[in-house]
Amino acid sequence: MGSLNLVVPVVLWGREAPTHDICSVLLTRDVKTVVTGTRDGQICIWDFDPPSLKLTARCLLVGHTSSVQCLAQASLTPGSQYIISSSENGEMCTWDIRDGRCLEVFKSANVHSSMIAYQMLNVPDSRLFCVGNYPEILVYDPMTLEVLFSLSARIEPDWISAVHILRPPRRNDEVVLGLTTSGWVKVWTVSEREVRPGEAIYEHESKMIRSLNALSMVCCDYNQRTVLIVTQNDWQIYDAGDFSQLCKVSVPTGERWMGGDFLTADRVILWTDFGQAYIYKLPTNCIVESRAFHNKQHEGDQAFMYGIVKPQHLEHLVNAPAWQYIAIPVSSGAEKLLLRGDCEGQVMLWRLADVTDHQLVQIQQVQPFRCINFAPTVNHSLMKSWLAMNPSPVGVLDQLEGEKNPPRITASLFLPLQGRLACGREDGSIILVPATETIMLHLLHGKHHHYHNWAQPMVLRGHQGRVNCLLYPHGESNRYDMAHLVSGGIDFSISVWDMYTGNLVHRFVVQAGPIVQLLVPPPTCTPRIQNCICSVSEDHSVALMSIKERKLVLLASQHLYPIVTVKWRPQHDFLIVSCQDGSVYIWQMETGHLDRVLQGVQAEEVISACDEHSQGVSSTDAGLANPAVHLFRGLRHRNLAAIRHAAQRGIQQVLGEQNNQQDIHDHSKLRTCPLMVQGLRTHKQDANSHVLFFDIEALIVQLLSDEYALMSPGTLEANELIQSSQYQRMNVLTHPASPEGAKKIAEFFGKVKDKAGEMEKKMKEKDKHGILSKVKESAENVQTLIQSKVESVGIRPTSLTPDKEGNDGRVHISRHLDITAQTLQIGQVLMSLLHSWGLDTSLDTTCENILGLLKPRVPVSFGLLSKSGYMSLVMPTWHPVPHNQMPPINLPPELEEELPPEMVQLEHLTQVFTSRGHWEISSAMTTHHLLTLVSLANTLQDMNAATLIPEQERRRKNHMQSSKSSQGNNPQEVEFAQQQVVIKQGWSRLTALHTVLLPGQVAQSGSTSFTPPMVEILARRWQDRCQEVREAAQALLKTELSRMGAEGRKVLVEEWSAHLPSYTDPLPTTVPTYNNHHEAMQSPKPEHNSTKQQNSSSHNNQTVNNVGNGSHTIVSERPMEPHPHLDEEHEEEEPMDGESHRDVVAQSEGRRKQATAIILLGVIGAYHGQDSQEGFGLGQLAMQTSKALAYLLLAPVSSKMPGHTPLRRAAMDLIGRGFPVWEPYLDVAKVLLALLDLCADTDRLAPSMKYGLPLIPEADSCRTASNALTCIAEARPPAFITTMAREVARFNTLQQNAQSLQMNLHNSVLYRAKTEILRIMDYLIQHKRVFIMDLMVEVTDIVLHCVDPGHLKSRGLNEVFPAICGFPQVSHCPHTRRIATGAKNGSIAMYELRASKCQMIPAHQEPVTAVSFSPDGKYLTSYSMMESKLSFWQTSAGMFGLGTSQTKCTKSYSTIPVPEIVRMNPQRLPKLVWVSNRTVVLMMADGTEHRFNA
Fold first, then answer.
1. pLDDT tens by residue, 764-791
2. DSSP state, 729?
3. pLDDT at position 1488, please?
4. Which of 965, 963, 932, 960 is nearest to 944 (CA)?
5. Most exposed residue of 319, 1090, 1184, 1206, measured as fewest CB within 10 angstroms of its CB?
6. Is residue 892 within 8 Å of 904, Cβ to Cβ?
7. Residues of the chain with pLDDT under 50
């Protein structure tokens, strides 16, 4: 469900319609959708409205790399929205035609020529019967593309050319008829209930007939007795009983039959490659009801052709058209439809009216005889749709004026370092335009339409004719000059340009054909080759040219066939060229000699042995001529699923110092542009359309990187982005250190925290004359002054013609791109296109005037990326809101009168699209767009209230820099703070609209078909690596679950609980070692070795619920565990013995569904599980979900279940969020120890949860586990404290016997996680005082375990850990190094720090309210408010300090009873204060004092 990274595609289609060379067609059973596949690999989805006979192109599906040979519906049930496509290179895809998502991809070794969907008896799902260039019939599951079984032949096995399936009356099985290319008819009887998976079924009957290379075979549905077989030269009717030929008709001269079907029992229709169809009446011996049936055919009794189905203007077709006949049952009989798609892109539909026998007799009597001509009912094409649009769809160069018929764009290349788009054209010119400015010009309203020279192009002229390809070498490798742009043209030349000046650096003309591809050698080549570029020409040659030396290095020109692939072997200095005939030429790059030529198996081995990272070049006939291949490979090579992280300048260094020089940030790639522009052509002769890919995570990362770089460490800490001071304060207490050392460390971190502010203050003190501040202010205002000057200049049209004064109008590109400004522009474009304009008028005003958003000019053509990088692109000809449901236009009357009618109509369509149509396209698109809007809005809100207005954003950043050292509240500070509040409110309102209010607002606008977000996509992004996207997904999922109500959640639980895995008890008995430590704490209940082995084996061979209909259990030697990688682009595992790759893919998909089910049910349980209606009461579902979550947390780290994955993080997070629901079924000790193990390095790894930049997996898991522990401790403080106290007691016991047990406790979890435990205890003391008071002894045990005893040698507990000293039940005596703690049961715990012992003293009958040591440490006073008793205690040691010390009560006093209302308030408890060594004062809450003497 989408790639790992969140990407939003937007299409600029251009003025010309894409070529649509149709080779396969499909009309769905509901007659509402037409699907057309092309020879270039695209699939177009058309909406068809039968009442109005209107055909509208809805979306284009891009993914196949070769011709789409056949199409089929995945299911014959009403309402089915899935289709299957198969291409000539074996690619099979399952598509959702509602939104164009690719659900499943499979590369088969078999090429299918025909696919038939059939609903078998007693089988809930349809089956796909496929035939092609292989000697069997393969039966697929259409949703998983898994081969269920095959139909094979024992006698004369051969390729099956035609197939038909029927179910005879009064039988419970299916009969499959197959016809081989050699003319053998095969009959199989199939019942899936009796078929084993993967089993081959052999034919029951065979017969040889006179029909070679048949194209189709159809059995008559009306009688199941006659069979129509069509070959290229004739069609024949056979008796299905004995397959005897009844009649035969030849094809008309000059044509070839392509297929046919039965109109009725005695009428057939046949179509030809000429683009027309013929209707025949069968002779009497072919009619079952006739007495002459099966008799010998008489000479006068021949098939009678009485009708011709053809278009009104019959044109010569270069390629044969595609046909489909379909009969739709209606109340009056059947609606007969014939569909045709041709190479011109035309889609025609005929309604075939019935001709009665009486009418047929009348036709025969008319002389001369004239056939009935059936005219098409519908005739439409993409070209007609484009011509009907006024104005035409926008293109990237539409701003160029003075060109009535602009040349086509033939090559496109996006230059992210310059922020420009290079477009090569048919006339040989190359246009370079600013990408974001051009997009804003075409898609958005705004002031930029009035700016002088906005989106001004640079023109490079040098080619004589079409520019075929462009290359920016520096974008491939940094070893090339940043200024060089390389172009190849149809004039055989390769030009090297200086982009910044527009000059031609050098021109190579070394090949004798048009240049079709440019590429760069790998970086491991020799230094000379590294300075070269490689070109492929249509003359079958490959050239290496040195840009540095400006000369030819190698010309490989002895290839006899077109080039398929160019690969490299740098270690042997070889250039390897593979040709279309299978031959491989090996060239020496340095010398230019042909080393050898290989054929056959050797050639294949050499190609497969080449470096897998070398870039491939497709052939001119197959790949280079097919732009869809370039688009597809461009997506894959650029790896849009990988996140782009920015290198953090100041923040990275600061965090490195504080975090033991460990970089916690995930740098998957260097800093790149969040926008990628890719050219799209469906045919090599087409003009380029352009697809804009907005990478949301890269955009967020760049925005936050620039923001954090402006912050000092103190500002980061103040904004709660990092928690270094808190963690370091806790970390110091857990390590041995003298008081002086601790003081020095604290001072050091204080200096680090404020060093930036101090440095700036010193600089200002040294700058007595204010020179630096003046220079700084001047530099900050230069860009603002330039911008204001630009705005003050009038409008001047952009033109490509030279000026009259002789100036050539050349534009110079700046060498230093303002990346921050470009990032803001990209964010402005994306947010403006996605915002729901028109739903909230006041919010729209805020967005325009304060936040910097711009209203769209046209309805936006969005795209959707799905599995394997396959993509669907919305057509500009389609609008999601039907014309009859359009609300009235909302334009000022004067503006409506001023604008032309077509512009008024365009504005009307845009308003409806942005308000409601945008959210009616599909659920998947709604999900991605809401994630984008919410995550970006939250990012900008967190950036100290940033806006998308460039001038305002510059002022904000200048203010941040200037306010680092300024103090006081001056008027400017107050005004700035007020502005920030307004901006934050604006972003908050925008977030609330798209998170909570959107369904209701869209419904109020008149929509009844709002498509809600898909919960499974949101669940898979519950722990997305980008923090902002993660929070957006969590907010949207929680809102959607609340919106659907209890009934909707119940349906969701029933749907996904079938995929929930069930785990046998017990869970792993040892805590997994995520951080590669040698040992971990063992279970509190030790088990025998045999028991451990048994438990381990039980987990490795667990039973998993069937992910299908639950009718049986999956039995496999491969353990079925939830897939650790929630994204569908992750590389799958290697097949085990006896497994096929298809089995692994199907099993991985099942595991991925299991992972989604765990997260989804975990979220429902965490937030709605305490409601008994949800099914998460004390029942099976809650136990099953909790055990699945616990298994993900506790499962040992392995190759199939890595230690730090989004799935494990989701389990940690959901255990924390829903701990009250899962607690009865969890081993709390194991869970806490596992989370603590992950948090052991929190002090040096994890920033706060508000920190937005992506982290490395270890740091992310560390942060998530720390947050989960906080949630658990807050939800169930007693459970956390008592569990940790038991583990501490057990640790102390092991510590006493560590030497005899030969254990290294320094690697145990409780030792390494002291800092995290202490942090949580500090949190509980501050927020959960009531629970702490009830468990004071346990809390003291935990705190003393974490705090190193060295800190308490000379300092009091109130200095070391002051939080716990806020309770009167705790007292520390530094002289005697003792700590006393009063317990709820009336006892006093006396801790001897010198001897590391604890003694429990039975002191009172009721809870101890307060304890206190005398200043000299000789006496201890205890007071119980409930008992109204105060006691003095004295500790006596043995003789000479030997023996056990004893604590005895020396005096006891009765005190005044305390009122009940005071007892109920834990904040107003009495306290004990010593005024001398023998006198203590009991201070009551009302201020009264009572003195007592020891």
1. 454 444 444 443 444 344 444 434 433 3
2. H
3. 86
4. 960
5. 1090
6. no
7. 1-3, 613-662, 669-670, 738-746, 748-757, 759-760, 763-764, 766-809, 1065-1070, 1076-1120, 1131-1132, 1137-1138, 1439-1441
**Quick one: CA torsion of 487, 490, 494, 499, rounded to 10 degrees?**
-30
Smallest CA-to-CA distance from 595 within 574, 614, 578 is with 574
* SS3 letters across 31-92: CCEEEEEECCCCEEEEEEECCCCEEEEEEEEECCCCCEEEEEECCCCCCCCEEEEEECCCEE
pLDDT value of residue 1105: 34
Distance CA 1407, CA 1425 (A): 8
Rg of the Cα atoms in the chain: 39
Backbone angles phi, psi at 669, to 5 degrees: -145, 165
As a whole number of angstroms, the distance between CA 251 and CA 260 comes to 12
Question: How far apart are the C-alpha atoms of 92 and 85, rounded to whole Å?
Answer: 6
Distance CA 922, CA 96 (A): 10
With CA atoms as reference, report the closest residue to 906 among 400, 446, 449, 389: 389
For the chain, the 3-state helix, strand and coil shares in percent, each to the nearest 5, are 35, 25, 40
Relative to beta strand 184-190, strand 467-471 is unpaired
Number of other residues whose CB lies within 10 A of the CB of residue 51 = 5
CA distance 476 to 1294: 59
56 forms beta bridges with 47
Kindly report, residue by residue over 1121-1154, the tens digit of the pLDDT.
Answer: 676 666 655 544 555 544 555 566 667 778 888 9
**In the prediction, which pLDDT does 1112 show?**
33
DSSP assignments along 1056-1085, one per residue: HHTT----PSPPPSS---TT--S--PPPSS
Q: Which residues contact 1023 (CB under 8 A, 6 or more apart)?
A: 1030, 1206, 1207, 1209, 1210, 1213, 1264
> What pLDDT, on the 0 to 100 scale, is given for residue 1375?
85
Neighbours of 165 (CB within 10 A): 21
List strand residue ranges (DSSP E) for 345-408, in order.
346-351, 372-374, 378-381
pLDDT on residue 376 = 92
Distance CA 823, CA 830 (A): 11
Closest of 610, 539, 523 to residue 575, by C-alpha: 610
pLDDT at 1386: 92
DSSP state of 1368: T
Determine contact, residues 763/772, Cβ cutoff 8 Å: yes
Q: What is the DSSP string of 245-300?
A: EEEEEEPPTT--EEEEEEEETTEEEEEETTS-EEEEEPPGGG-TTSTTTTSPPPTT
Residue 942 amino acid letter: D
CA dist 1203 and 1238 (Å) reads 10
Residue whose pair of structure tokens reads 């001269």 in the numeric block: 253
CA–CA dist 1350, 1393 (Å, integer): 10
Nearest to 400 by CA among 427, 432, 443: 432
Cβ-in-10-Å burial (0-12, 13-18, 19+) of 605 comes to exposed
537 and 516 Cβ atoms separated by less than 8 Å: yes
Structure pTM? 0.86
CB atoms under 10 Å from CB of 328, counted, come to 14
Q: Tell me the C-alpha distance between 552 and 469, whole Å.
A: 19
Residue with tokens 């149509």: 917
Comparing CA positions, the residue from 1278, 1282, 1046 lying closest to residue 1175 is 1046
| H-type alpha helices, 659-718 | 696-709, 713-718
Q: Classify residue 1102 by burial, with Cβ atoms within 10 Å: 0-12, 13-18, 19+.
A: middle
List the structure tokens of 419.
């922020």
